[in-house]
From TrEMBL:
Domain of life the protein comes from: Eukaryota
Record bears the keyword Membrane: yes
Family statement: Belongs to the RLP family.
Pfam families reported for this sequence: LRR_1
Name of this chain's protein: Receptor-like protein 7
PANTHER family per UniProt: OS01G0160600 PROTEIN (PTHR27004:SF428), RECEPTOR-LIKE PROTEIN 12 ISOFORM X1 (PTHR27004)
GO cellular component, one term: plasma membrane
Subcellular location(s) per record: Cell membrane
Entry annotated with the keyword DNA-binding: no
UniProt keywords, alphabetically: Cell membrane, Glycoprotein, Leucine-rich repeat, Membrane, Receptor, Repeat, Transmembrane, Transmembrane helix
Membrane topology, record value: Single-pass type I membrane protein
Record organism: Quercus suber (Cork oak)
Amino acid sequence: MEFTDVKELLSWLFVEDKSVELFAFTAWMVWNQRNKIRASQNAVPLHLLCYDLQRDGRGYEDAWRGHTKQALLKRKVTADPICERCRSAVEESVHAVWSCSELGEVWDVGDEWCFRSEMEFTDVKELLSWLFVEDKSVELFAFTAWMVWNQRNKIRASQNAVPLHLVAEQAKQKLNQFKADWRNPRVRALEVLDVSNNQLIGQIPQCLLNSSNSLVLSMRNNHFQGNLPEPFINGCSLRTLDLNHNQIEGKIP
Ligand SMILES: [Zn+2]
């Protein structure tokens, strides 16, 4: 399957009755992990991320809904199912990320979610379905809800958390960044490309030489041939280029 954007992928997941929530959760963790690596912070290795999700076969159910206070009460992990933000309702999934009265700073700042006080949803899946039918931004909802959930978990773990009044704006920024990178992941995210010693033939793809990223490109010991394109010679931002042992003509600046 190929999807042009996240919205298309989400729509397909809905139509095919796949777990949209699990997808949103997994995508969020992958995204988080990428950002941590880029910021040189400790990140969960990808293979452990998968383990985290699947460890007890309940995946998402356990990762989100399963950790609400209502669920913990059922499993007798806690005796108190009440939401710690508002102290006035049982914390089930839709309450934790959406309907809690203390989340006004997140959801009631613009017009986008003005139906929050009028609509009632029994769970997050019902809310997501409704957003789809009404053509609301499911992606922005997924990002924002995950930031709210993350924020709650950090507070509970006594870690630094984004203040609630900044969550809506940051979710928008993160979504825009996510979309920009998602649309062109190969070119934008690529920083090191090493295809040396591969018997590759043909011309060097021009998009690599014109990449606006400071790319490290190692293509030594192949059978690339032809001239280096003019735009490349005039200006390019490659950090390193290794074309040794090919049949390339033209000057390297
Ligand atoms: Zn609450």
